[in-house]
Design goal:
Elements (H helix, E strand, L loop, with lengths): L8 H8 L3 H20 L12 H8 L6 H9 L1 H21 L3 H18 L11 H15 L6 H10 L2
């Protein structure tokens, strides 16, 4: 027998809203990460302490894909802006559930690229956060945002004759 009337409806309700906390966490985190990159003095520079260029040069030889780092190093500032704006778009899309699967794919790709480059050398692997973020995006990529989302609202509007 289930609680809340014994019919198990609370399980259905919990299941329906199970991904909302994950959407909120990832959305807020990626918005913050993007804003942090855009507002941290010196980050969006080729050289200097804590610059994107220095970070990329620092991880180049320990990354799984040095060639990917080399691409970023051709224009570190442009790459920094691309990552920051990508994180912002992914975060907003995830938080508001707008093109949620596309946003989750973007988040997964950003996390995958960061795992293979910036956090690849972390040992043991489970201490690197980018792999955990990558795995966190997968349920949202598979399920989308069917509740409390702009996707659901737009889908409902399309059904109304």
């Amino acid at each position: 027998m289930g609680g809340f009337g014994g019919d198990g409806s609370w399980k259905a309700l919990a299941s329906r809203y199970a991904l909302v906390p994950l959407r909120i966490f990832l959305g807020v985190t990626f918005i913050y990460a993007g804003l942090d990159k855009l507002t941290t003095p010196g980050f969006l520079a080729d050289t200097g302490p804590d610059s994107i260029g220095e970070v990329m040069r620092g991880v180049r030889d320990t990354s799984a894909l040095p060639a990917l780092v080399d691409v970023a190093l051709k224009n570190p500032v442009g790459f920094g802006y691309a990552i920051a704006l990508g994180e912002l778009l992914v975060g907003v899309g995830t938080l508001f559930g707008l093109y949620a699967r596309v946003a989750a794919l973007g988040g997964a790709l950003i996390s995958l690229s960061l795992w293979l480059t910036v956090s690849w050398q972390v040992n043991p692997f489970y201490l690197g956060n980018d792999l955990a973020y990558l795995m966190s995006w997968l349920p949202l990529l598979l399920a989308g945002a069917s509740v409390l989302s702009l996707d659901a609202l737009l889908s409902e509007r399309r059904r109304i004759p």
